[in-house]
Queue: 3 jobs
Job 1
Amino acid sequence: INNNFLDVQNGTLDLTGSYQTHTGNFNVAIGSQLNFNNGLANFADGTSFTGGGVTQFNAGTWNFNGDISADNLDFAGGTTTVAAGTTLTLTGTLGKISGGVLQGTGDVTIASGTFGFTGGSLGVLGFTAVPGVSFEVANGATLAVSGSASKTVTARSVTNNGSITVAGTGNVTFQFGASLVNSAGSLIDLQSDADL
């Protein structure tokens, strides 16, 4: 349980465990990695993920229950849920949804940098769209869709106030009321024949 400061300065640290609640800062240095594996953990208000390295969420259940800021998160497996009334703020250039599920009725914002979407699923809880719940690409930020894997957006609005690039061969399926809103002055750059 991290209620203060955990600093990964070199190499890879694997954490496994269930029914843990964290409120502290996880810092991962450039070239290092922090893995959450095969467990169940809650991340409460005030939790933060910082540094130039990657924090990866693998098979397990991960609940974001407060306003959380995060550099370089990789949702590689398992299910991560953003609670209602909270905001997950994403920054950095190494973060992505690469195979896991990022869901919930809280807001998710790419505030700066580049966030990838190379596999997996983005959605809400269930299959009914929730008005006002968004996945926002902020002005100056980029959502980079790429790779050969199929991707899904389920019952959630994706609002582009920055830029979205689409490359690779894997299609993106919007289903159960999901939508893509491209705001005035924003850019969607289609670099391949993948369906969006």
Job 2
Amino acid sequence: FRNCTFSANTSADHGGAVRVDDASASFDGCTFAYNTAFNHGGAVALFGGATLTVTGGLISSNAAGQNGGGVMLAGGSASFEGVSMVTNTASVDGGAIHVSAAGAHLTFLGGEVTHNQALQRGGGFALADVQGSLIDGCHVFENSAADGGALALLSGANVTLLGCVIEVNHASGWGGAGYVEGNAFLTAERTAFLTN
């Protein structure tokens, strides 16, 4: 899909606009706005061995009744480059992105994750069981959650932050910038954590 708009779509289950099961999907310069999923993935939900590639574009003002206000990954891999994820909301975890699948892989290069909200964990990112994943050169700004205003690394997550700016995020409970639990592992290099 190139230069497409997905707006005001609704799912009674997963993936307010798009659900990908054991398939590949690519979006270049697309906008996902005001989509809603009753369960997971306000805009997009991935399952099984799905592969998602998103280049440029905007994922904004989407909502999930459970996890992944913008995108939920329950298998496979997802790559984002130069994407803006703004004002997405999740009623549980992962205001912008939620990943929860053994062996799942996430790459997020450049772009911004701003003003997203999760009522429980990970205002920007909530990542569990994701291995060898990279968030590189991203601006993570003014996201909020109960725990992990910017990001929450949950059981089994292994994530590297490289050259990011994590600033002015808020948690009403633990970890304005980040929340790491259980056997999760976070590596941060050349990353600034400011005024969280």
Job 3
Amino acid sequence: PGAAVVLSRQVPQAQKVLDRRCDEVGAVAVHQGRDFDVVQRALAMGGQMLTVQGVHSRYDDVWVPLFGAHQAENVAVAIAAVEAFFGDALPPQRVRDALAAVESPGRLVIVRRNPTVLVDAAHNPHGAQVLSWRPAGALRELLYLSPLATFAPGHPVRGGIPVLFPQFGLFGPLPKHGLVRAAEWQPLPTRGPHEA
């Protein structure tokens, strides 16, 4: 009883269930979007620069070496969780130092620079797609990736080359962009170039 439960942004149905359970056990629900949130997000060299309104304080100029709106949301939840644990605001420079050193292997990692190759673990049904392509000698990225793209389960990524099969859009009797895009993916062992 009295413990804080820090909740990331939820769909309304899930939020109702979580709120009800918090009430049942006497916990205090702390909601992203109501009690804390990302106030500002801008792309920065090697990551993104954030302003986060925590539960107890505002944290400006927080550089995080991770890409994507989902990572900014994760930072806000982490800050709120640590504030809830200590019951107070955190030293801003400690927050900056800790988040500047964070790593998330497999999440939009630059594995090569010429040409630029990004790797993002396909951890959800919509994750199996090409997000970036710049051939050798090209001066710019050739694929569109929306700056508002969400990299989270249940959200198709806006941009890149998604797997569209056996139809595009609503030009056929199947769901938009066919069945494969929403199928569960499972990595298979790699084989040599001459193996069947």
